[in-house]
């Protein structure tokens, strides 16, 4: 594992997109995961934000996040298809190869498996002409899909080449998902990995998980589950995953700190991970110690 | 990525081949002159736009010189394949079904003709149209004026007929496009190693009517593909006797690539590139099987 494998999410940093891009690049990162809000919220308009991204020298690893897409019908479905198209167009504009999609939390969605599969297939189809991959993530407070196994069930049933899975260490830690769930996943269908930790034990309720996830995450190495995070990254690496890792650290404190301080913490986390995980591939038998 | 051949209705749209291929160009006269050399006859012109209909046998080519169309579908001033129109049982049904499955509707600009031919986005800037009513009443009757003294149905030179289209795709995108053509139109990917013509590469998809093929081609490994875009590259034209057709066309001034391994053979032949973007591939094919 090397520095180039890791990127930051813009949601971890305060300020305008230009400042975020500069801080991330100056910290030594080469890739960035963008939030659509960074683009459309730019004071000079979306085109200015897109120009800033393309001129940044950073590789865009993806765009987030499409929410509550699957399981809707009628007008709500049509509305979400329009939202999806808008995000796909933005993804193409910033040369993001991937759109992150979270499992639905909507009270209006239905849990019918076949309907959700059909909706994910439709989303994947919308993304084909634009050359974008869809990475579907199970939110730990999702209404029907709230873990990796559930997300993988939908992705594998949908069986579309440009539809894969996004793993987020937060949700796995929050649900205390066993690593064995990774054994079920086709490694080629793992499209994206997001990393973070938090500072206490697994929250009991979906509501607590959501609050923690949105306000109180920290970088790997800073939280209460360092061993588990390292084990998870090691397990993902062992699958043969060669894609991007991005720090998705929603933290209310980090968005009121100097950007350089936050990016320094992110870089420290990279070193923590590579220090703990980079030796993984030498003695392969280490794997069994964690099973 | 592994592709499963999931069961599909064998021909969900009742496709029975290709109604027309549209080229967009700023220089319709120059392209028209090339088409004449290829054995096409200019049989009609649009009432109000710079749009020409060329035909031989069952092949229709629309040459669209309307400035709006050219701006949308070509890079620079070079001619490009702007659209392909599939003959289907019910165009409105085919269009509706495609949108439900996640196709992007075509832009609201007037189509190749001002008739409201429904269509969806295809590769790059190209469109895929759906045309029905091919029997009782032609789509050209409304907005085109038939040229005086010219047969409306000139016979094809040397049994030439539509065989297929070649589409370039970005690296590792073949599976995405297989999903696209299979889901929306019922195309079927042939086993790897199944090739036709002179360029044994890429992946061949067969239309559900069995009379038409799409060849998806990724850039050659290690090639510099800076200029490689996803687009419809060229048409394939079937003929029962490639070498005889080559001789006929050479006599009309068409130049074929004559260096190994592309030298004309009884399997196929490739014309030189005209205008930097247009060439034609002849493929040995005895003719369309019953639809």
Short description:
The complex is a heterodimer of chains A (291) and B (291). Chain A has helices at residues 17-26, 36-40, 46-55, 74-93, 113-127, 148-158, 169-174, 206-215, 226-238, 259-277, 286-289; strands spanning 6-9, 31-35, 59-66, 98-102, 133-137, 163-168, 190-195, 197-198, 217-218, 245-247.
Would you mind describing this structure in some detail?
The complex is a heterodimer of chains A (291) and B (291). With 291 residues, chain A is α/β, with parallel strands linked by helices. Chain A has a single domain (3-289), classed as Divalent-metal-dependent TIM barrel enzymes (TIM Barrel, Alpha-Beta Barrel). Chain A is 42% helix and 16% strand. Chain A contains 11 helices and 10 strands. Chain A has helices at 17-26, 36-40, 46-55, 74-93, 113-127, 148-158, 169-174, 206-215, 226-238, 259-277, 286-289; strands spanning 6-9, 31-35, 59-66, 98-102, 133-137, 163-168, 190-195, 197-198, 217-218, 245-247. In chain A, the strands form 2 sheets. In chain A, strands 1-2-3-4-5-6-7-10 form an 8-stranded parallel beta barrel, surrounded by 5 helices. In chain A, strands 8-9 form a two-stranded antiparallel ribbon. In chain A, helix 6 (148-158) links the parallel strand 5 and strand 6. In chain A, helix 5 (113-127) packs across helix 6 (148-158). The two termini of chain A are 22 Å apart. The model of chain A is unreliable at 280-291 (pLDDT under 50). Chain B is of the alpha+beta class and 291 residues long. Chain B contains 5 helices and 15 strands. Chain B folds into 2 domains: 18-146, 2,3-Dihydroxybiphenyl 1,2-Dioxygenase, domain 1 (Roll), CATH 3.10.180.10; 158-284, 2,3-Dihydroxybiphenyl 1,2-Dioxygenase, domain 1, CATH 3.10.180. The model of chain B is unreliable at 1-8 (pLDDT under 50). The chains are: A alpha/beta (291), B alpha+beta (291). The interface between A and B is medium-sized, with 15 and 23 residues.
């Amino acid at each position: 594992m090397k520095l180039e494998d890791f990127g930051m999410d813009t949601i971890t940093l305060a300020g305008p997109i230009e400042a975020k891009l500069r801080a991330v690049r100056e910290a030594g990162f080469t890739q960035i995961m963008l939030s659509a809000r960074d683009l459309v919220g730019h004071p000079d308009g979306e085109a200015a934000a897109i120009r800033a991204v393309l001129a940044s020298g950073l590789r865009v690893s993806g765009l987030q996040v499409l929410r509550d897409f699957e399981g809707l019908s009628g007008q709500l479905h049509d509305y979400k298809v329009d939202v999806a198209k808008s995000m796909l167009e933005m993804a193409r504009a910033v040369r993001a190869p991937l759109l992150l999609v979270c499992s639905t939390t909507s009270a209006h969605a239905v849990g019918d498996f076949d309907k959700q599969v059909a909706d994910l297939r439709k989303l994947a189809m919308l993304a084909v002409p634009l050359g974008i991959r869809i990475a579907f993530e199970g939110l730990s407070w999702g209404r029907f899909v709230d873990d990796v196994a559930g997300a993988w069930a939908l992705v594998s049933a949908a069986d579309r080449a440009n539809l894969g899975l996004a793993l987020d260490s937060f949700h796995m830690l929050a649900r205390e998902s066993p690593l064995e769930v990774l054994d079920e996943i086709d490694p080629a269908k793992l499209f994206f990995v997001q990393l973070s930790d938090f500072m206490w034990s697994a929250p009991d309720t979906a509501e607590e998980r959501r609050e923690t996830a949105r306000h109180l995450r920290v970088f790997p190495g800073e939280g209460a589950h360092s061993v588990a995070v390292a084990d998870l990254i090691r397990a993902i690496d062992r699958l043969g995953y060669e894609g991007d890792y991005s720090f998705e650290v929603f933290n209310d404190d980090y968005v009121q700190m100097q950007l350089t301080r936050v990016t320094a913490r992110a870089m420290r986390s990279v070193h923590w991970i590579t220090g703990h995980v980079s030796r993984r591939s030498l003695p392969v038998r280490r794997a069994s110690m964690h099973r | 990525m592994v592709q499963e051949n999931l069961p599909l209705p064998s021909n969900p749209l009742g496709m029975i081949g290709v109604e027309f291929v549209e080229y967009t160009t700023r220089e319709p006269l120059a392209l028209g002159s090339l088409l004449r050399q290829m054995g096409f006859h200019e049989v009609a012109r649009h009432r109000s736009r710079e749009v020409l209909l060329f035909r031989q046998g069952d092949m229709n080519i629309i040459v669209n010189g309307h400035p709006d169309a050219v701006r949308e579908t070509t890079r620079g001033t070079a001619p490009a394949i702007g659209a392909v129109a599939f003959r289907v049982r019910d165009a409105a049904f085919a269009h509706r079904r495609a949108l439900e499955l996640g196709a992007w509707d075509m832009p609201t600009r007037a189509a190749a003709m001002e008739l409201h031919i429904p269509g969806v986005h295809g590769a790059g800037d190209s469109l895929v149209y759906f045309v029905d009513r091919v029997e009782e009443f032609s789509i050209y009757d409304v907005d085109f004026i038939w040229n005086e003294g010219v047969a409306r149905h000139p016979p094809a030179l040397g049994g030439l007929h539509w065989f297929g289209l070649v589409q370039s795709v970005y690296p590792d995108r073949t599976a995405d496009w297989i999903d696209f053509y299979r889901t929306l139109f019922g195309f079927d990917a042939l086993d790897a190693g199944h090739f036709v013509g002179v360029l044994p590469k890429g992946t061949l998809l067969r239309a559900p009517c069995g009379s038409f093929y799409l060849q998806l081609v990724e850039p050659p490994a290690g090639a510099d593909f800076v200029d490689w875009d996803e687009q419809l590259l060229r048409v394939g034209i079937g003929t029962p006797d490639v070498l005889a057709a080559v001789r006929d066309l050479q006599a009309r001034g068409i130049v074929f690539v004559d260096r190994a391994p592309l030298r004309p053979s009884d399997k196929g032949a490739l014309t030189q590139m005209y205008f930097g973007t247009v060439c034609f591939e002849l493929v040995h094919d005895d003719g369309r099987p019953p639809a």
